[in-house]
Amino acid sequence: MKITSPRRIVGSNAERSRLHNRQVVLGHVREQQPIGRAEIARISGLSTQAVSNIIAELEEDGFLLEAGRQTGGRGLPALQYRLNGDGAAALGIEVRPDAMFGALVNLEGETLFTTREALADNAPVTVASMARRIRAAALETRPAGQRMLGAGVVMPGPFGNVGISGAGQSALQGWEDTDAAALFEEALEMGVIIENDATAAAVAERVRGVAAGLRTFCFIYFGAGLGLGMVADGEVQRGAFGNAGEVGHVVVRPGGRQCACGNRGCLETYASRIAARARLAEAGIALTSTDDIDCLYRDRNPALMAWLDEAAEPLSQAIGMIENLFDPETVILGGAMPDAVLDHLISGLALPGGSVAVRPDRQTPRILRGACGRLTAALGGAALVIHDTITPRIAAKT
Ligand SMILES: [Zn+2]
Questions:
Q1: Assigned CATH topology for domain 87-201+378-390
Q2: CATH architecture observed for domain 212-372
Q3: Listed range (1-5, 178-182, 222-226) with the worst mean pLDDT
Q4: What are 299-352's pLDDT values in tens digits?
Q5: CA of 249 to the centre of ligand 1 (A)
Q6: CA of 325 to the centre of ligand 1 (A)
Q7: CA distance 318 to 267
Q8: What are the residue ranges spanned by the domains of the chain?
Q9: How far is the CA of 250 from the centre of ligand 1 (A)?
Q10: CATH classification (class only), 13-83
């Protein structure tokens, strides 16, 4: 893909400062609603006049509603405000090599619509046309007058022309000369954020899954390949070019299995859907969907069970490395794998004892299974847009 940074940052300093103040006000309302102007001004450090102006603007835009007057106290009770959950929504779209997922999420984080569409191929023109269809279906379901905040489009990395571009089955084909943000903005007719799948999944888990309340954690994402999403002190970590977290191409078996990236012994060739598919193909079983894996697991299919046994050790080794590199509160496993298979993988891990994660005062388990299911990345895409609207903190520093 031709984008040098997966996120678009636009606007002058004054515009950004105005947007930041809107985020601050919306953030305080969401956390402490109902709340009055004077209270917001006191917590935020903005002047009462500035808060009043912002609130008027947010009310006009449909983000806030009046919520009566506070009783008690002297003088005229202060007018209170709360978030208008259905006042605005964001679209999340995940593009995988063989399917697209869509989700519409409102300002309060409630899911209004979800869909999965199979892709015959993943050429830009096919993906754009499917994106249009998902947009139309999603927008049909929303309440009248609801504003669209934009779309978070989630794609497998890596972004840009780098050494592991086009790494076989986990990558999209024919996107080298495509400006992904421009393509989706045209197809969806709204502002677009492009994000990698693992990072979006990490955000979804923080907004509504098992990472709620955590500030520093990692998420191992089973897409076609294997990605790593990282949130450190409440902020997603992207690296200089949006490619941080290509954990699938970390070598865990020097001289081991041949990977499509050109190296041997990459984690992805042992612990990923690609690896599962390859092991099952050797047994004459063609894998077409996550549901197939679920059925095979319920039957305790010998080829699938053999793959799970084989994946445990390289995955354990990678998790130990992730812990020592990032010192996370926990490492979450999730994405396009059935919950039962993820649970089996987790129960089979032999995590290294020599890890900074081995502490007597742990608050959370070393490993958790994600709670957002197979829509996690699409939900995360929408959550990123909502967070960009409401919270100055989870978005990357600009
Ligand atoms: Zn590789």
A1: Nucleotidyltransferase; domain 5 (3.30.420)
A2: 2-Layer Sandwich (3.30)
A3: 1-5
A4: 999 999 999 999 999 999 999 999 999 999 999 999 989 999 999 999 999 999
A5: 4
A6: 20
A7: 8
A8: 13-83, 87-201+378-390, 212-372
A9: 7
A10: mainly alpha
